[in-house]
Amino acid sequence: xxxxxxxxxxxxxxxxxxxxxxxxxxxxxxxxxxxxxxxxxxxxxxxxxxxxxxxxxxxxxxxxxxxxxxxxxxxxxxxxxxxxxxxxxxxxxxxxxxxxxxxxxxxxxxxxxxxxxxxxxxxxxxxxxxxxxxxxxxxxxxxxxxxxxxxxxxxxxxxxxxxxxxxxxxxxxxxxxxxxxxxxxxxxxxxxxxxxxxxxxxxxxxxxxxxxxxx
Length: 215
Description:
single chain, 45% helix, 6-stranded parallel beta sheet
């Protein structure tokens, strides 16, 4: 399968490396320095497993800054661009994801676009309506910085926000690329999936706050 991964931070890069074991993966990034590092088989993030896979595994992975090149022939587009939370506005900045989905719709309209970036509840349904494109699916990541590839290789669960054959196929693709053949797969509605991710982030933040709180 021809896969395009947009964004080469710890989420995007770990997904690209994971799937490049079995598929042709093109990583798209706006930063030429990141692209050059990836094409030289050097990581763009601090992740020992990613560095090892890039150095030692025969991955089918290349990187580019060229949108037309990246999307050409893509059957699957994975969106992993930043959506920073603004405490003042109490909202996520989804502008980068908005732009990627618009590009994917224009340049690879037959592809399935899977959003891995954290988004607000209702985002996927809203983007489908705004673009008039039903090929947008949300699939949350449950990854730790520095251990993202390891968490993809040994997933606690694989969640996809659509009850369909294509959602099952995507989830199975992730499980097949992992080292955990019995990883649980959960297919549910898009808004419920977005809520699962936000609840998971909130729980993690509460745990961190508890353990680092001053006495």
